[in-house]
Design brief:
178 residues; alpha+beta; 7-stranded mixed β-sheet; two-stranded antiparallel sheet; 9 strands; 24% helix
């Protein structure tokens, strides 16, 4: 599926997606948050699974100024593990502390130009894209991470600075298109 990737400085695309809590979420719901982190994820991808705890910890560490939301855009017919009901189970089992949303028609993934899971998009207070890419430089071994790209982008933006590494290559599974 060819998509047009958002460029640094692009505005946050509009969306209105159902969360596992049966509530709808749009960008306006997060107007009071300094930074919004949109993560395209899913249940079955080993790259996403390896990063779940890192995202939970980042949400805890930055809870006063950052809101993470995860969006699952995968085809749930070919990948039933990524169904809405299984999203609820996984988020509960893993203790997600951020909204987990379903992009059933895959339009939000297309609007962002997302292609992988996990794929990170960070938006500043003006909801302009300031970082796009991966969480850190070692998805397999958290103890061996040398560069924490997402945390660095959050710290730099919250400090009033431009992100020194605004783009990294997302490593993960491809989004499963219908």
């Amino acid at each position: 599926m060819a998509t047009n990737k958002l460029q640094i400085g692009s505005p946050l695309p509009a969306f209105n997606l159902l969360g596992i809590d049966e509530k709808y979420y749009s960008p306006a719901k997060f107007n009071d948050t300094e930074l919004l982190v949109v993560v395209f994820g899913c249940n079955h991808c080993p790259y996403v699974q390896a990063n779940e705890q890192r995202l939970i910890e980042i949400q805890n560490d930055y809870k006063d100024s950052v809101q993470i939301i995860e969006i699952n855009s995968n085809d749930d017919v070919g990948y039933p593990e990524d169904s809405f009901e299984n999203m609820k189970i996984r988020a509960n089992d893993k203790g997600y502390n951020f909204p987990y949303l379903r992009d059933d028609i895959q339009q939000t993934a297309k609007d962002f130009g997302a292609t992988h899971t996990p794929e990170i998009f960070v938006f500043n207070k003006k909801r302009k894209l300031v970082y796009h890419g991966k969480i850190d430089d070692n998805w397999q071994n958290p103890e061996q991470v040398k560069t924490k790209y997402l945390r660095k982008a959050l710290d730099e933006t919250l400090g009033g600075n431009e992100v020194s590494v605004p783009e990294t290559y997302s490593i993960g599974c491809t989004i499963k298109w219908k």
